[in-house]
Amino acid sequence: MKDDYEALRLKNQVCFPLYACSKELVRQYGPYLKELDLTYTQYIVMMVLWEKETVTSKELSESVHLDYGTLTPVLKKLENTGYLTRERSAEDERLLCISLTDTGRKLKERAVTVPAAIAECMGLTIEEFRTLYTLTYKALKHMESKD
Fold it and tell me: Domain spanning 22-111: which CATH class is it, in words?
């Protein structure tokens, strides 16, 4: 007799290993980010700024998949640390512009080794890593398009 509830077994859920892997991956970042005095959320914000230098709060929110309520305390902390500035746009006061500071740029030099260290801890070949990356983003984009 076929198990009608086979689909409800935890071992058959793709969401669970993704969830557990995500949690473990963030935990693996811990020692590296501690050296930079950053949380994981602060780190992903800094990565956007290292790439773009200046972004609006809307662009940042979309890039890191976090809402304004979650981002605001992160941005305040990074501003107080001297890594970024926040100011209203002269063209549109509704827009908050977030810009990297020189201190924030210098932090990039200290952070440059983190991605390779994390990739190594995952135990994947370059090809497996690329496949995981591609499939994960494909699924994410598909789910986001449903909203």
Answer: mainly alpha
